[in-house]
Design a protein that fits this description.
This protein is mainly beta and about 475 residues long. The protein is built from 4 helices and 28 strands. The longest helix has 15 residues. The chain is globular, with a radius of gyration of 23 Å. It binds 2-(3,6-dihydroxyphenyl)acetic acid and fe (ii) ion (FE2). The site of fe (ii) ion has 5 residues, from loops. This is Homogentisate 1,2-dioxygenase.
Length: about 475
Amino acid sequence: MSGDARNGATALRKTAEALTYLSGFGNEHSSEAVPGALPQGRNSPQRVPLGLYAEQLSGSAFTEPRAHNRRSWLYRIRPSAAHPAFTRTDNGALRSAPFTESVPDPNRLRWNPLPEPAPGTDFLAGLWTLGGNGDATQRTGMAVHLYHANSSMERVFSDADGELLIVPEQGGLLLRTEFGLLHVEPGHVALIPRGVRFRVELLGDASDDARTTHPTARGYVCENYGAPFQLPDLGPIGANGLANPRDFRAPVAAYEDAEADGHTAEPVEVVNKFCGNLWTAMYDHSPLDVVAWHGNHVPYTYDLRLFNVIGTISYDHPDPSIFTVLTSPSDTPGLAGVDFVVFAPRWLVGEDTFRPPYFHRNVMSEYMGLIEGAYDAKAEGFVPGGGSLHNMMSAHGPDRETFERASAAELRPQKIDDGLAFMFETRWPVTATAQAAHAEHLQASYDDVWQGLERHFRAGGRP
Ligand SMILES: O=C(O)Cc1cc(O)ccc1O
Ligand SMILES: [Fe+2]
């Protein structure tokens, strides 16, 4: 990395670390980068302050119930409508629902991390689809993507097909969005709502040493075609707990204006994912030109280590739905299109209890990833940046080594704080893409982790 590039990365990180945010989940936020830019008392005045254009961005139908209604008003230098025609561009390794390249596979599958990307791979080019379900054109289902990038985006991306839940595993990210800037590090997540334009810039590792090497970024993305993620109901848990609403952070308004001092704006490539395909157009200005905004269809971040973990203080452990950070409800109450679940550091105190995840078969399909460290059901082979897929009704649970260790362990209070795992759990089976089903980094003998689980049964006697 050249001295200039290093200074650039350091400056970018300083920008990221100095950001301020608005607090709260689902709020009616408002923000202005220039005082007086936000119209007061109405959304669409005859003339918008400072000569801005008013524009509504709808994330729900106008007519959806108030509790589900999502829209924001953006006050921008140019209206979004001022752009040339989009033309098709290469989808790269991005695939969309319906997933028809492979037959749905009942086998337990596990992948190692993605291989190194070619030089100059930005976040968008680095997206690699593992699989998913539903239909992007019907706004149902979800896709699991991974990304591995080594270059900041210069172009801008938006996804008409769904919202993007970005789960970094390596490398900090600066997200420049229409609503302002967001900073995420591994252990945080970011949510870009449907249709919101953004650019991903790479910050590298938070430690100084790593910043002297070329920044790379790796992680996971859940593309949710269905209803926007919301906080789960808490039921008997009460009014507090799990992910607390005030810990979600939305950006403050910030805009790009290359023409500010009479300069000519550089053309900006804008890529739009629409019904499964990528489309591109060259804009004569940056679409990240929103000077003020208000509304509830906004991007946000959340630090997973702030998750208030609830579990047993007697015996057994609750089903992992107790670890739900965000849920996308489907049309059947209690049955999520997709849940985002985190296995955060926590104490295990259950008495006379097999403490790791139990053996089970689940009508829901579970994709699991690892952000850091280890996961308590797997002694080895499930590594940060890798992932496992336990599809509808497939039998899974602790590997042999974990089973033997946990069955013999002395049950003292034990802190699990050596890892951060997550799950995208969906009501529909996940069909792998061809590239995932035939990937070199697909593990050949995952089934073997359950080999050698010996018979201990003796009729008429205790083992
Ligand atoms: O499969 C997994 O590891 C996730 C999981 C954890 C747990 O404690 C119970 C059920 C479950 O699906
Ligand atoms: Fe499971």
